[in-house]
Peptide/nickel transport system substrate-binding protein
Amino acid sequence: MTAAGTPTAAAHTSGGAGPRRGGTLTLVGAGDVDHLDPALAYHTVTRGIIRAYTRQLVTYPATRDHRRAGDLVPDLAVAADGPYDDEGRRYRFTLRDGLRWDLPNGPRPLTAADVVRGIKRLAHPMAPSPGLPYYLSTVEGLAEFRDDLLTLPRDLNVVAPYLEAAEVPGLRVLDGRTLELTTRRPTPDFLNILALPFASPAPEEYLWFVPGSPELDQRIGSIGPYRITGYEPDRRITLERSRTWDPATDPVRAAHVDRIEVRQGLDEKTCHDMVIAGDADMMWDIQPLTERLPEMFAAGDPRLEVCPAGLFSPYLVINVLSPNEGGALARREVREALQYAIDKTTVAEVWGGPRLNDIAEQILPPLCRAHRPFAPYAANDGAGDPERARRLLADAGYPDGLTLKLVYRDRDIHPETARVVRAAAARAGITLDLVPAGITELFGTYLGRADGAREGRWDVALSGWEPDWHGNNARVYLQALFDSSGVSDNDDWGSNFGHYHNPVVNEHIDAALSCADETTANEHWRAAEREVLRDCAVVPILFAHQYWLRGHRVRNWLPYPVLNGDLTNLWLGED
């Protein structure tokens, strides 16, 4: 099997020159990763580098064709086969020969036990993975294993040995290179779930650190072509070539550059100007300056790339647990008022204009195969209907309006997005007090904490959702954001940031996950979407396209499966 994306790569090589090895790829931006630990890493920019040092049993090819972006190919495993049994529940994988860890304490072979440990570790009671719901609802026995873990004291000396020794029926090591995974029921997208970075192998050393902890961040190992050689939070991340990676064992990564350096703490204009001037190669976590886009588009600037991405972004999360304003957001009329209060067209302008965005009136975007047009609250081509919003507030007992706290990310285009959302809400009598937060604080302190939601630290939040995979992917929106069936006693709501609970939605999600065929499953996904929108659980705002700016040296920039480009397949031309 040749390296994925090679035919596409040849079509995008400047001047017909082949790949050039060497050099340092420099990315510049404002903020940091959410986590370097693949069990917890979920932020878009983290995905930008995680492919360089993690691998999974199966993965996606590097390509610029969004129609191929959902194609699965083998990665650590020698094949990406479906189930082998008549029930469609058992999968057997054999690891490639010659796979080796590059760990701080030295190299060693990668084993099937490492793969199983990586999945078990997602249920860690001291820091569960945000991707855990995918696996709890899929892997046989994992939910029971998670429940047992929750009974343990929060002590690594207790948790680590239990994680290692306890057996999960759906995760079996057959020998050093072979493992068998069993699903609770036939699951057509199980290989997609196994391709997520969450399902990366974990060495035994990881058990003695809390997942995502600063201590572990300094000890992350590598099974990819690059290893992390330096990490200063909010300042710098450095990756250099792995000491153990063998290209003969990796069909999807090429590893042309010698070193990858991420410089953080810079403002948007500085980053933009550095890339334009050739002082940096790519943007990291921020978009190109929107005021420069019309000129760049008119000039056909090849350094600017626009890709359909299936982003549900931005959208407004509604905290239904908030006690503020007498628990106003628990009332459907208030949540419906928010649907009409927001002027989505002004947000679209902040995000680069109509060329780069589609107004969103629903949750499932056009690139999702379950998508069917549905717009229950459409008004004035996205501009909203503030008078109708005022009437709904009056019917809910708020004739003089109300005041809510809007939390948002404090970098890039997000502050301006918050300001235009605040201005639009004011038309309807809704005052939004702005609460800026860094990326880690936004998801760790606000959206990821049920106690903060209950205490009213925030009422609504600007967030976005990048699909975990493409094509047959309705679950990556609806299960991740709205399923409450797996909420545990410790209030782990995962990515259901608004703490939305509707048994009917849970039933449709469960029915969709129980379907062996995609057509019937998609009928249930659409029913779940209609129910969520009927409840006004979120305010859809945009389906944003992804756009990126890269420097003149960058060759073979391939946006899928990583939306800021697959760093392992690009190379640097001459200065």
